[in-house]
Structure formats: structure tokens, C-alpha cells
Amino acid sequence: MQGRKVVLSGLTLACLLASGCVTVPHRGATTHKATTLVAFGDMQASGGFKGNVDDETRAQLQHEARLAYLEAIKVDPRHLPAYLGLARLHKAQGDYVAALGVYQQALELESRNAGLWHEIGMAQCKLKKYDDAVASLSRALEFDPNNSKYKMALGGAMVLAGKPAEGFQVIAALKGEARAHADLAKIYDAQGLTEQAERHVAEAMRLDPRVLQPTVPSSAKPLPAQDMPQTPDVVRTTYQTPASTGPAAPPQIYNGLPPTEAATPPAAPDASSAPVLSIRSR
Questions:
Q1: Which of 23, 173, 213, 277 is most buried per CB count within 10 Å?
Q2: pTM summary value
Q3: Where in the sequence is the domain holding 173, given as residue range(s)?
Q4: Which string of DSSP letters, residue by residue, matches 213-270?
């Protein structure tokens, strides 16, 4: 196992060397660019959540990803993708409190980014902070008012926040009343609220029998709707969001979220505890 871990790290570093992303000087330490560190962190994080690795290797990969993101923040405290990578890593590990803390730092860099507000709202849903999620998802739509994904998430969050009539109207405006009833049935069913779920199933069937299969009971826990506030635990999202409505600047897409010029950067987390891009300890 020890030999395998050394080989894995060696191959990772070799790939970066071959791509020209990393250079090794003859003397002294190498200072890596924030973009290189984030790329390395993304690669390690991706490997750290694959199902075909053992627990020890998985933990090591996730640890290396965290150190890479922290080092990137230390190198460039205004590099938004480093904060996003770290927040998504925490989220994928199930630590939504830590993820929200990092997202709050990211907001100091880019407070008008619709995609960032959307991610915050989805994390708040995971913590059952539904009122906060409604506020965050409303901000996402403020900066990207035509985004149907954000509208669906807002509608679902409203239902979970105890505002079913408002949530229904948001979803129905996108998908029609029959499908809106079907989506509310799925939300309530996932919450174990069978009576409410069955009412919406019946209404959906009345409006359009094609919406749901009548032979499938509502208590069978159907798969969550794609855009409901049940975000998958992944480290990196691939969708791109529109540029901020802040100061005009050439769009730069990093990890699907475009940073813009920031005012005062947040304090960088401490990343001095261990080196990054090193072969794992034997």
C-alpha cells in the first residue's frame, strides 16, 4: 500500500511536470501559481471521491486537495477559484458549515456573482436553513433573472421554507401546474410528508395523467427533481454562469464562475502547515 501511494503521487507530479505546469529548480523551493495549485487541488479532489480507491488513499487525496487550495489562497488571496474549490471540497465531505464559511469569504471577492449565490443557497438547503436559502437564491436571480435552474431551486426552497403557494407559483411558471404539483409531491415525499405528497400527486394526475405513473405510490421515494434544492455532493461544478453585473471587464471563467475586480480581499486561511505537490509520506 505504501508503495502504491508513492507511485500514485509520483505519477501525479510527473503529469504536472510533463504538462509544463510545474517546474523544479535546481536550488530552492518552487513558488507555484495559484492557477496551478487549484488545478492540482481539483485533480486530487476528483480522485479522492472515486469509488475504486481505499479509505486511506481517499483521505490522503482529499487532504492534498485541501492543502493545494489553501496554498493557492496564500499565493493569491483574490483568486476566486481557490475559495470555490475549497468550499466544494468541504461540501463534498458533508461539512456544509465549513463550506458556507469559505463561500462567505468568496463573497468578499465577488458579491454580484449569480452562480456563487446559487451554490450558497444549495448549501443552506442542506443545513435546512431554508429561509436563508430563499434569500440567497433570490440574490442569484437578481444577477441572472432568466436562469431556469435558479428559479427551480428557489421554488423548491420556498416550499421547504413553509411557503408552498409561493414556491408552487415559481415552479408552475416554468413547467406548468401539473408538473409543478408533481415536483411538490416529490419534495414532500422526500421529507416524509406523505399526506401532502399524495394531495399533489392527485392534483397532478387530475390536470395531466401523463405527468406521473398512477401505479407508483408517492411513498416510493422517487428520484429528486434535477433542479430541486438537493445538490449533489460533488467537488466541482461544470456549468458556466454569466459574468457579474459589476465593473466591466473581459470575462474570465474559472471553475464555471467568473471573478471580477474585487475590493478588499478576505484574510487568507493558514496554508503553512504542509507543502503542496509533494510525494506522500511513507
A1: 277
A2: 0.68
A3: 128-232
A4: -TTS-GGG-PPPPTTSS-----S------PPPSSS------BTTB-----SSPPPPPP
